[in-house]
Amino acid sequence: MTGQAPALYGLLGYPLGHTLSPAMHQAALAAAGLPGTYLALPVPSERLAGAMAGVRAWRLPGLNVTIPHKQAVLPYLDGLTPEAAAVGAVNTLFWDGDRLLGDNTDVAGFASALGERPAGPAVLLGAGGAARAVLRVLMREPGPVHVLARRVEAARALRAEFGAEGASAALGSPEAPALLGTAALVVNATPVGLDGAASPLSAGEVAALPAGVRVMDLIYNPDETPLMGLARARGLLAENGLEMLVQQGAAAFSRWTGQAAPVSEMRRAAREALG
Ligand code: NAP
């Protein structure tokens, strides 16, 4: 190819609604002194093939991918990072020479937000894409991971696939409080709480948690989710998913540019875009 690739970055998904990624990545490019524009690029499923042909034709340097394309994009790629292969879905596309690769930076994002895994059992709520990224990180350190999902068979299948020690149960089932009663860490990887009203755990289940437990909700809007509200009312440590979002963006930025990401600028821009 002759000529220079346009410094166009973006997010492929449909519909895109309000996304923090353009603000976060535009701020990162500016802080790093790099040229480039990051756009929301809404692409319905029937036009994904065309969009991917465009990514290659223009050799676009960096894309994020979100619902509904995180798995659909796999056939258009030349390879996957071990994290993307383990999760079975990608959220970041980058070039390695002439190969277009897929990464799942939710893994790095959750790992950075978590820091050290608290010693003891973890309880993971949900068994979807984000839960897979979380489990990949939790499995790096010893300790059981109990999975609670609305379909117990999904919880069982996830634990079996990852070889996780622990137990599986349905959310809200009579087995749940005993598992929650041993937890050192609880991670909500369901969308329950996005409406600002529902919690994936009842007040009674939150009451079963031990005093020293850390509660992480992957939801970042609202700022305090209903689960966090219940946990904090008990005096427990609870945090939302904004740091994971910022850190997954930082990992993507590093993939694209080969540079350390200006994380504090990205965090500031994400908070500002949230309003
Ligand atoms: P997903 O692949 O659709 O998985 C959602 C999981 O939650 C599935 O196990 C699903 O169960 C379960 N679920 C859905 N609705 C439920 C309900 N009403 N009650 C109980 N369980 C329910 O979605 P995802 O990509 O994993 O995302 C999950 C959440 O994490 C979303 O809120 C997303 O915004 C958040 N997230 C945050 C970050 C971040 O950077 N902070 C990154 C990724 C995701 P079924 O299989 O039975 O449907």
Would you spell out the secondary-structure blueprint of this structure?
Blueprint: E1 8-13, H1 21-32, E2 37-42, H2 48-57, E3 62-65, E4 79-80, H3 82-87, E5 92-96, E6 99-103, H4 105-114, E7 122-125, H5 129-138, E8 145-149, H6 152-162, E9 168-170, H7 176-180, E10 185-188, H8 203-207, E11 214-217, H9 226-233, E12 237-239, H10 242-257, H11 263-274
Parallel strand pairs: 1-2, 1-3, 4-6, 7-8, 7-10, 8-9, 10-11, 11-12
Antiparallel strand pairs: 3-5, 5-6
Bound molecules: NADP nicotinamide-adenine-dinucleotide phosphate.
Oligomer: single chain
Q: Strand percentage, roughly?
A: 15-25%
Order of helices and strands: EHEHEEHEEHEHEHEHEHEHEHH
> How far apart, in Å, are the first and last alpha carbons?
42 Å
Q: What portion of residues is helical?
A: 25-40%
What overall form do the CA principal axes indicate?
globular
CA-based gyration radius: 19 Å
Order of strands in the sheet with most strands: 2-1-3-5-6-4
Q: Report the sheet with the most strands, covering strand number, pairing sense and barrel closure.
A: 6 strands, mixed
Derived from helix and strand composition plus strand pairing, the structural class reads alpha/beta
Q: Residue-averaged pLDDT, rounded?
A: 97
Distinct ligands, ions and cofactors found in the model: NADP nicotinamide-adenine-dinucleotide phosphate
Spans of at least 5 consecutive residues whose pLDDT stays below 50 are none
